[in-house]
Write a structure and sequence with these properties.
Layout: H1 6-27, E1 80-84, H2 90-99, E2 104-109, H3 112-125, E3 130-134, E4 147-153, H4 162-172, E5 173-187, H5 192-201, H6 211-220, E6 224-234, H7 238-241, H8 247-256, E7 259-268
Parallel strand pairs: 1-2, 1-4, 2-3, 4-5
Antiparallel strand pairs: 5-7, 6-7
Helix pairs in contact: 1-3, 4-6
Length: 270
């Protein structure tokens, strides 16, 4: 199997997230972020706690995020918000608490089982202005100039063609609208062995690119006033890494300044 082929990568992600949706139904637990995650259900290396966030719905939080994009999204009552890779609906329900009855929230996800789970969660909540649609971020089933705000949480790193994804973001945002996305990026050069370990431990690392390249692609898509509003290092435990690299290799990595980072990025459509 050619795992570098975009269609193959999408299928891997789709199958894994389908498994996660089913697992959450059976166990009521969260899993770690990523397409080929190998960590246990209590390994929250990427995710942040939503417990005190208004609108938070525990059943919709599968622990797949790497930030809280709504925290910086400048969502207002009455806005239309589009969430890319909505999963079970976690960020959509947080956004709904802000936009209120006069706004609208659209969650896009390419995994049928996730959309089914999100719709089931929404049915329990009874929101008539929250909608979940099956679709590919690189070719969204959303009309142009729909969103006042686009959000996404640890999903765009898994998209094979980020240029297409960012172009689609630009298309669906209204002129004068903006996005806020949380994602995983790299800074500096990670040794291949360490990157492989990171990808096994938290699969969303496998699709991560350099931060400067990520921000440059957003600029090429047409966005302006792009800014990293939050950044934190995802520090994999030494005891894990020492199973795969020597103490000297680990020390060189720690002192190099390279690392895996969760960033939240804001940008505007002119």
């Amino acid at each position: 199997m050619d795992t570098k082929d975009p269609s193959t990568l999408k299928q891997i992600v789709k199958e894994k997230y389908g498994e996660i949706a089913e697992q959450s139904e059976r166990q009521g637990g969260s899993t770690c972020c990523g397409s080929e995650c190998g960590c246990s259900s209590d390994t929250d290396v990427m995710s942040e706690r939503y417990t005190n966030v208004i609108g938070y719905v525990k059943e919709a939080d599968l622990g797949l995020g790497c930030g809280i994009p709504t925290e910086f999204a400048k969502i207002k009552p009455g806005d239309t918000v589009v969430d890319l890779g909505a999963g079970a609906g976690n960020d959509c329900f947080v956004a709904r608490a802000i936009v209120g009855d006069t706004g609208k929230v659209i969650g896009v996800d390419m995994t049928e089982k996730m959309v089914t789970k999100a719709n089931a969660n929404n049915a329990k909540l009874g929101y008539s202005n929250v909608q979940f649609v099956l679709g590919d971020i690189e070719a969204m089933p959303v009309e142009s100039n729909t969103a006042d705000v686009v959000v996404s949480n640890c999903v765009l790193n898994l998209v094979p063609d980020k240029s297409k994804a960012f172009a689609e973001m630009f298309r669906v945002i209204k002129p004068g609208g903006h996005f806020t996305v949380s994602d995983i990026v790299l800074e500096g050069s990670l040794p291949d062995r360490l990157r492989d370990v990171a990808a096994m431990y938290a699969g969303c690392v496998s699709g991560a690119i350099q931060k400067e390249d990520y921000l440059a692609l957003l600029g090429k898509a047409g966005f302006r006033n792009i800014a990293v509003v939050k950044s934190r290092e995802t520090r994999l435990p030494d005891e894990l890494l020492l199973h795969y690299v020597s103490q000297d290799e680990l020390q060189r990595y720690r002192s190099s300044g390279a690392g895996i980072f969760s960033i939240t990025v804001y940008g505007e459509k002119p």
